[in-house]
């Protein structure tokens, strides 16, 4: 049907319109599970991407995301969570999405073919030396995404390229190429399916490792979260109580003294003053485990 693997016919697609509903779902699920397995071989590249991204954020740089269509939506989902999960300010994690906010409400294919849109988005993101861009495209040929990657490289930023087709232009242009070889889709060419599933998991893995590298994850808990609603305030109190080994009442008092910041609240709950807690964390590079031993 096509030279590009993501456009080819999936082996389980033949007769898909003729089988019972449960068989349609069973085949579709099997295709998704097979696509997910494509992430495993890319773990070394994902680790390299995470370390590079963490270093950028640690030294005051930015971690930007870029994409169009379904790939862009997967990038956007991970980008938005950097604030909510790890407390990284939104201005440090800009999102470059083909067509902007309007394209999120009504997906249109034309914007991904327009590399001129990349210029304005790059200017807004203001990427440069010390920054990292994660660029995602299932085919690895999306003009908008390639233009963003090229512009970021020209500005001095490092590029992580995530694509689902081997030897595609995006992978060739990237400093850290990440191939997720998911192959044909159960609905040919619909890369919102297996390709997007693999992309989402890959970026989830990168952001988790970034959080760990920055010291924003302690025993699997998000110790740098922004507690801006009742659910997260309760979560923050439970985290402080568990890590500090105190009851939630003491944890809430500590959080009040640190204006809701979890890491220093752990130290305050263990007897430190807010000022001392801040100094100890600074000396430990923001790593709570190190600050707790100091």
List the helices and strands and how they pair.
Layout: H1 21-36, H2 43-58, E1 63-67, H3 69-86, E2 95-97, H4 100-105, H5 116-125, E3 132-137, H6 143-155, E4 158-163, H7 169-173, E5 176-179, H8 194-213, E6 217-218, E7 221-222, H9 230-244, H10 248-257, H11 262-269, H12 274-283, H13 288-293
Parallel strand pairs: 1-2, 1-3, 3-4, 4-5
Antiparallel strand pairs: 6-7
Helix pairs in contact: 1-8, 2-8, 3-8, 5-6, 9-10, 9-11, 10-11, 11-12
Can you tell me about this structure?
It is a single chain. It contains 13 helices and seven strands. The chain has 294 residues and is of the alpha/beta class. The strands form two sheets. The protein has a five-stranded parallel beta sheet with strand order 2-1-3-4-5, sandwiched between helices. Helix 9 packs across helix 11. The radius of gyration is 21 Å and the shape is globular.
Quickly describe the structure:
The chain has 294 residues and is an alpha/beta fold. It contains 13 helices and seven strands.
Main β-sheet, in a few words?
5 strands, parallel
Strand tally, please? Answer: 7
- The overall average pLDDT, rounded, is 93
Helix and strand sequence: HHEHEHHEHEHEHEEHHHHH
Give the proportion of residues in helices: 40-55%
**Radius of gyration of CA atoms, rounded to a whole number:** 21 Å
Shape: globular
Strand order of the largest sheet: 2-1-3-4-5
**Class inferred from helices and paired strands:** alpha/beta
């Amino acid at each position: 049907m096509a030279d590009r693997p993501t456009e080819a016919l999936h082996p389980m697609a033949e007769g898909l319109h003729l089988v019972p509903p449960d068989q349609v779902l069973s085949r579709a699920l099997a295709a998704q599970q097979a696509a997910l397995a494509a992430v495993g071989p890319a773990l070394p590249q994902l680790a390299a991407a995470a370390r590079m991204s963490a270093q950028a954020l640690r030294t005051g740089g930015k971690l930007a995301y870029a994409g169009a269509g379904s790939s862009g939506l997967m990038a956007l989902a991970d980008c938005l969570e950097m604030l909510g999960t790890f407390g990284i300010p939104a201005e440090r994690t800009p999102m470059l999405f083909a067509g902007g906010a309007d394209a999120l409400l009504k997906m249109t294919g034309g914007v991904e073919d327009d590399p001129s849109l990349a210029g304005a988005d790059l200017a807004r993101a203001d990427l440069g030396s010390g920054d990292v861009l994660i660029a995602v495209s299932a085919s690895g040929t999306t003009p908008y995404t390639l233009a963003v990657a090229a512009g970021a490289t020209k500005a001095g930023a490092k590029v992580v390229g995530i694509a689902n087709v081997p030897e595609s232009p995006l992978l060739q242009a990237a400093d850290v190429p990440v191939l997720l070889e998911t192959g044909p889709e159960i609905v040919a060419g619909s890369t919102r399916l297996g390709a997007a599933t693999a992309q989402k998991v890959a970026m989830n893995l990168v952001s988790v490792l970034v959080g760990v590298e920055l010291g924003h994850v302690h025993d699997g808990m998000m110790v740098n979260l922004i507690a801006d609603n009742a659910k997260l305030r309760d979560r923050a109190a439970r985290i402080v109580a568990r890590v500090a080994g105190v009851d939630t009442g003491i944890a809430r008092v500590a959080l009040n003294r640190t204006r809701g910041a979890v890491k220093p609240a752990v130290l305050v709950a263990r007897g430190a003053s807010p000022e001392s807690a801040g100094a100890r964390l600074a000396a430990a590079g923001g790593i709570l485990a190190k600050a707790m031993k100091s």
